[in-house]
Amino acid sequence: MSRAVGILISGRGSNMTALVEAMQRAPGPAHPALVLSNRPGAGGLETAARLGVPTAVVDHRAFPDRERFDAAVNSRLAEAGVELVACAGFMRIMTPVLTGAWAGRMLNIHPSLLPLFPGLDTHARALAAGVAIHGCTVHEVTQELDAGPILGQAAVPVRPGDTEASLAARVLEQEHRLYPRVLAAFAADPAAARAGRVALFAAGSA
Question: Which family does it belong to (predicted)?
């Protein structure tokens, strides 16, 4: 049985595009049911529509607090029959109204090898720390920021002369490989996905 996926975005939605194209290319345990943005002008909405995926906007500026915004997002996801949620550049701090409703059914991709560098500015922080390996992580969403159970990681080497932009580009390439694989595995069998983390290493990436 294919599970309906709702994808939350705030911007251009490159990870959303990777997820949707993967699900459409190889129909299986998951299919895109909705792409929802908190920003009316998000570029990813146009991309999703072009790919034939229903879209919605729940503008966070129209709500007096985070809880009521999160309740509205919940309602829109429910209306679309969503069963799993994939956060793909959704730049909102979520309350228990949202994280609680989707506990065990919401994934996120973060641009670092968690538990290293939770939060923002991950690539700059990785370079400042002098790490030899950087990457990205797909994890379940919990109320604690970037601290949910890890489902998969992809690593890239940090090269001499790397800038924040060059490192970010190399990591993003791996995000687009990792996230679709983890989502498909999780949709097919959450318990197995939790037990067998997906691991990728891009030793030769440019």
Answer: Belongs to the GART family.
Residues belonging to the active site:
110
- Helix (H) and strand (E) counts in the chain: 7, 8
pLDDT attached to residue 201:
87
How many whole angstroms separate alpha carbon 202 and alpha carbon 159? 12
Strand order in the sheet with 55-57: 55-57, 30-37, 3-9, 84-87, 106-110, 133-140, 150-157, 198-201
Would you say 74 is a known binding-site residue?
Answer: no
Span 76-89, pLDDT tens digits: 999 999 999 999 99
Q: Which amino acid is it at 33?
A: A
- Annotated ligand binding at 166? The verdict is no
Average pLDDT, the chain: 96
Bridge partners of 17?
A: none
Angle between helices 14-25 and 43-50 (to 10 degrees): 10
Please say if the pLDDT value at position 205 is more than 90: no
pLDDT tens, residue by residue, 137-147 = 999 999 999 99
d(CA 14, CA 147): 23
**Residue 178 and residue 136 in contact, taking contact as beta carbons nearer than 8 Å:** yes
The pLDDT, as a whole number, for residue 126 is 98
